[in-house]
Amino acid sequence: MANFYCKCCGQDFPNLRVLTTYSCNRSDTGKHQLFEGNESDVYLCEYCGTEFRNLKALCASNCIKSPNRKHIPYEGGIKTTYSCKYCGREFNNMKTLCAYTCNKSPTGNHFPAR
Length: 114
Ligand SMILES: [Zn+2]
Ligand SMILES: [Zn+2]
Ligand SMILES: [Zn+2]
Prior knowledge:
two-stranded antiparallel ribbon, binds zinc ion
């Protein structure tokens, strides 16, 4: 049976009810937030493209590109091409997408579409 993961701290829960009941010290809202992507061998940060073996490791380190300085797991799964949701440019990996500036994005950087 699949577990439910918090995308802020990476903790796993046996069901959604438990996840939503407890508070999370890494979440901006103070509550765990459900990671809606699939379980995978690799998790990517959607701001910097760094790869992690699990969500806990992703959540535990800091991100230089994210607005809240935390890596945020990409929920779109592992793909062969990633496209920017603001300009539609395609990249063959997330790191490259995150590395270039985007003139259509409000943050100035490309951001992956799901
Ligand atoms: Zn959490
Ligand atoms: Zn990051
Ligand atoms: Zn773009």
